[in-house]
Fold this sequence. Notes:
Blueprint: H1 10-18, H2 31-34, E1 41-48, H3 54-68, E2 72-79, H4 81-93, E3 100-103, H5 107-111, H6 124-129, H7 132-135, E4 139-140, E5 143-144, E6 147-153, E7 155-159, H8 160-165, H9 175-186, E8 193-196, H10 204-214, H11 230-244, H12 257-265, E9 269-274, H13 276-285, E10 291-294, E11 305-314, H14 321-334, H15 337-347, H16 354-360, H17 367-372, E12 376-378, H18 386-396, H19 398-401, H20 406-419
Parallel strand pairs: 1-2, 1-3, 8-9, 11-12
Antiparallel strand pairs: 3-11, 4-5, 6-11, 7-9, 7-10
Helix pairs in contact: 1-4, 3-15, 10-11, 15-16, 18-20
Amino acid sequence: MKKSLRIGGIVATAALATMSLASCGFSSGDAADSGSDGSATTISLLVPSYSDATKGLWEGVIKDFEAENTDIKVKLEVQSWDNLDSVITTKVSSNKAPDIMNGGPFAGFAADDLLYPIKDVVSADTLADFQPSFVEGASVDGVQYGAPLIASARALFVNTDLLAQAGVAEVPKTWDELLAASKKIAAIGGGVAGYGMPLGSEEAQAESAIWFYGGGGTFGDAKEITVDTPTNLTAAQFMQKMVDEGATQPDAGATDRSPLMDVFVQGKIGMIIGLPPTVGQIAENNAALKYSINPIPTVDGAPFTLGVADHLMAFKNDEDAKKKEAITKFLDFTFSADQYVNWVTTEKFLPTTKSGAEQMNGDKDLAPFLAALPNAKFYPSTNPKWSATDAAFKALIGQVAQGKDPQAVLTEIQAKVDAG
């Protein structure tokens, strides 16, 4: 897997770009690419790359769809997660938003009335098939704008050989146990790190959430973002303690998750937070690695996982009737069990539909994550300020690992959030 399931800083920049569009209307502005040419209706699909398989998976869905719908063409564009923010911002600001987009945040787009409510572009059967636990996170003010595509939960991946070599008898369940075990593993030497803590810009908000939520804190809710709190400060201080006492890899404040996971896969990190696709990455790149998947350690051992869902969203663009019908047909086709289960199974994520969950229930690789999902906490991604929060964490939280006072860092993040 090249990029994990993540929520980028899309909405804040896109919201700024679209403010000027509210008064003049919003249209595709590119009929040759995304409109109807009289014989076939073309819809555009913008997606991020989750793995090396992503492009081929979408091409397969599109090939099958076009074979059954000869009057509709789907134009696919695949971008890296690193580029997705700037790409969608440019498209929206130039009135060339994709007809369908796969991404995370959508509250800003919904606030600017750029998206169809999902009930308008999927059938009643597809709408009813979404698992209720994901519908709330796909909605703003009670209106569902996102079609939950894939979900993920986090878990603690443990190199069992390193744990045994360090003399650690049990997988840590609490922060104190994690610190002690990580220090013992790091003492092995030879470039081995105890705990992998990625606070670089790729996914710093996720690692932060692991600690903040695991300490009983929160990032806030749909109405208010609350980062600078006493509970979160305690978590940030413990993160700094992990670094200061040599329990993590060097330069934790600038390390991105993807390259750090590669180090774990090669057997040089004792413990790291991973995702369902991590299983496939290990199988592909170091099948001999001996590891286990365990619950995330928390301040008191209480069960918790970070849950994330990415969505498909449909932009109104010119609201052409044929285009809307084509979007509906494509979304229904994508979420049909035969297409959807193959897609999710290959990417090793969790299903968001009832029919998909039934078919994937026997996948042993997903079992630890499915078991953790009932205790999942989610980002407040339907808050319009979430994108600013996400960006602030990516830019600033790494300073905790670089020695800056944690209180000053949280204060700075909160100020960025409040400023929008």
